[in-house]
From TrEMBL:
Protein name: Uncharacterized protein
Stored Pfam families: DAGK_cat (PF00781)
Coiled-coil parts of chain: none
Gene Ontology molecular-function annotations: acylglycerol kinase activity; ATP-dependent diacylglycerol kinase activity; ceramide kinase activity
Protein origin, superkingdom: Eukaryota
SUPFAM superfamilies: NAD kinase/diacylglycerol kinase-like (SSF111331)
Cellular component annotations (GO), alphabetically ordered: membrane; mitochondrion
Organism: Cyprideis torosa
UniProt-annotated stretches for the region Disordered: 415-440
Segments of skewed composition (Polar residues): 415-426
Length: 472
């Protein structure tokens, strides 16, 4: 046998590699099926649970981007996500988008009077999630609507940064989709911080992000890596090697001016946007009155037993959404709290930075990390390879400067001295029309907002704490 393998070594290597890939593929499919089976039993168990008197079945509206992931999004949703929702007894209405930007228009014009729903599910990639959240928070009744309707996300797109942050499994994996769908079924709702992004020189309305903003040479390479798909597992390594040989880490480095205010737990100086931020549960008296009227027809001993239980567990229900403190803490009068550091802007200059990452940490702060400058080729490739596996923290070797903030202004500098670039009136008009437009839209540097590319221009970020309610 050894002699045969030695004689036909090319065929032996080919069939060994093919057998290894086939075994791995079958193992992954088997694991996916077993996980689907487990969640189907759980969804059916929740669906068979009897409803209370007067309680209506849950209604969910799904905004599905069928062309996401090269047209596979609709197939993936119908195969893995829709069966779980139906087994759980959820009434599902699907709204399919037909073009870029339509998800934003659908959410802006969505009528809860004509289509009353409990949860609005976004089935797509990061672009669809960004459009839906932006459309929701641009509405005139956004504050009231976010109190009544929760958001869910089903990651069936090519890029799923937001879903990967919230749920288990790799981006686009079956486990990631199933975990996200079960979060909608279980209805575990928690508040989520949102980043408000405003262009300083544009009259256009703001854009809202759920996770991060990033710019710099590392992010430029990350957006180019999918083009090397034919290299398989080695595409990330070869992408950074190619960019490093071209000197991207030096030629694409950024000069930025950052102005920020430190984090604040709430005071009279920031009361304006704090009041805009937190959706509180609406009309508790009305819900309590309906429950009292429905229980009035029950025997006296049932009413007394329910009343005793409500008094016994009152303290546990008084916890807020995050599980920190009680509901009494939410009624703090911030107009009587003074924090002189809240609106005091501080300034930081970054010259030749290779990475600027801004993230909503979920603790009421923005985390800002700036990468080192003058990175040699070997370190650029080494750090780039591990970016997907390791999140940048303050103690990461790549990080040269790090701090936390509540508001942040980012101003790109054309030169280290801060002199502005001189452009003609035609170029200036073309640039103004491209400010924070979806897509790359121009020859200038880009910034990614939840993995979607925008043109890098001066902009201001404001963290809106607990702005939307999310299923995760």
């Amino acid at each position: 046998m050894f002699r045969t393998l030695r004689t036909h070594w090319k065929k032996s290597i080919f069939f060994s590699c093919s057998g290894g890939f086939l075994t791995k593929y079958l193992k992954e499919r088997w694991d996916d099926r077993q996980l689907m089976r487990k969640f189907c039993f759980e969804a059916k168990k929740l669906g068979d649970f009897p409803l209370k008197r007067g309680e209506q079945p849950r209604k969910v509206a799904v905004i599905l981007n069928p062309v996401a992931k090269k047209g596979k999004a609709s197939i993936q949703f119908d195969k893995w996500c829709a069966p779980l929702l139906h087994l759980a007894g959820v009434e599902v209405s699907i709204i399919r988008t037909e073009g870029e930007g339509q998800a934003k228009e659908i959410v802006e014009n969505f009528s809860t009077a004509e289509n009353p729903v409990d949860t609005l599910v976004i089935a797509g990639g990061d672009g669809t999630v960004l459009e839906a959240i932006t459309g929701l928070l641009r509405r005139s009744d956004a504050l009231e609507l976010t109190r009544r309707v929760a958001l869910g996300v089903v990651p069936v797109g090519a890029s799923n940064t937001v879903a990967t942050r919230l749920f288990q499994g790799e981006s686009g994996s079956v486990r990631n989709m199933l975990e996200a769908t079960m979060a909608v079924i279980r209805a575990h709702i928690r508040p989520l911080d949102v980043i408000k992004i405003e262009a300083e020189d544009s009259p256009k309305p703001p854009v809202y992000a759920a996770y991060q903003i990033r710019t710099g040479p590392f992010q430029d390479v990350e957006m180019e890596i999918p083009k090397y798909w034919y290299y398989g597992p080695a595409k990330r390594f070869l992408g950074y090697v190619t960019a490093g040989l071209k000197g991207v880490q030096r030629s694409a480095a950024l000069d930025l001016q950052l102005e920020y205010t430190p984090p604040c737990s709430g005071c009279s100086r920031c009361q304006g946007f704090l009041a805009e931020a937190s959706p509180k549960p609406s009309a508790p008296e009305a819900s309590g009155a309906s429950s009292d009227s429905s229980s009035s027809s029950r025997p006296w001993w049932q009413r007394w037993f329910n009343f005793s239980l409500s008094q016994l567990f009152a303290s546990s229900r008084s916890l807020n959404k995050r599980g920190f403190g009680t509901a009494d803490e939410e009624t703090v009068d911030y107009s009587k709290v003074d924090n002189p550091e809240c609106d005091r802007w501080r300034e930081v200059f970054l010259f030749g930075t290779t990475d600027l990452l801004i993230r909503a940490m979920g603790d009421g702060t923005l985390s800002i990390t700036a990468g080192k400058n003058q990175l040699p080729f070997q370190e650029f490739v080494s750090f780039g390879r591990e970016l997907k596996r390791r999140i940048l923290t303050f103690d990461h070797p790549l990080v040269a400067s790090a701090f936390k903030a509540q508001r942040l202004r980012v101003t790109p500098l054309s030169t280290p001295s801060g002199q502005q670039r001189v452009v003609s009136s035609t170029e200036q008009q073309a640039e103004e029309e491209a400010v924070l437009e979806e897509g790359t839209g121009g020859k200038h540097r880009n910034v990614t907002i939840d993995s979607e590319q925008f043109e890098l221009r001066p902009f201001t970020l404001t963290l809106l704490r607990d702005r939307i309610r999310f299923c995760y």
